[in-house]
Amino acid sequence: MKFDSLEKLYVHELKDLFSAEHQFLAALPELKARATDEDLSKVLMGQMQETRVRIGRIESVFSSLDFEPGGHRCTAMEGLIEEGGQLLSSDIEPRVMDAALVASLQRIEHYGMAGYGTARSFAEKLGRKKDADVLQVALNELGESNRHLTTLAERKLNFLALNLTH
């Protein structure tokens, strides 16, 4: 695709988000299986549902644009998932595993927040207020999820990982 307009760049950003969300959704069951902490496991279950909802939101935006969401592979998400997978497949203590899972999840969420923020900004500039509102909801959800993960890590998981070595 030739990027000769903000609208085409916007569509590309949406395709990137769509691919990233699908890749994340596919990786979540394995991430959940590696979690040893019950609270983290519950967070991962919730993320599966939230990701499905975000995919539906992106599909609704594509429908309003009269574009198809597929046909693109988000290589950044692929790299984030691969990097996390390499760490998680190494020889790692279960309690350290949970801290590593949160670190990996937060990298993924920050990538998503950057993408949704960019897409929302493009939608606003293109006068697509409804799209911008939908994308803002997704951005808010990712921010809330990230805050939840930070709290879980700082109040529990990082402490448990630290106590293995001290």
UniProtKB/TrEMBL annotation:
Superkingdom of source: Bacteria
InterPro entries cross-referenced by the UniProt entry: DUF892_YciF-like, Ferritin-like, Ferritin-like_SF, YciF
SUPFAM superfamilies reported in the protein's UniProt record: Ferritin-like
A Pfam family of this chain: DUF892
Protein name according to UniProt: Uncharacterized protein
Organism of this sequence: Aureliella helgolandensis
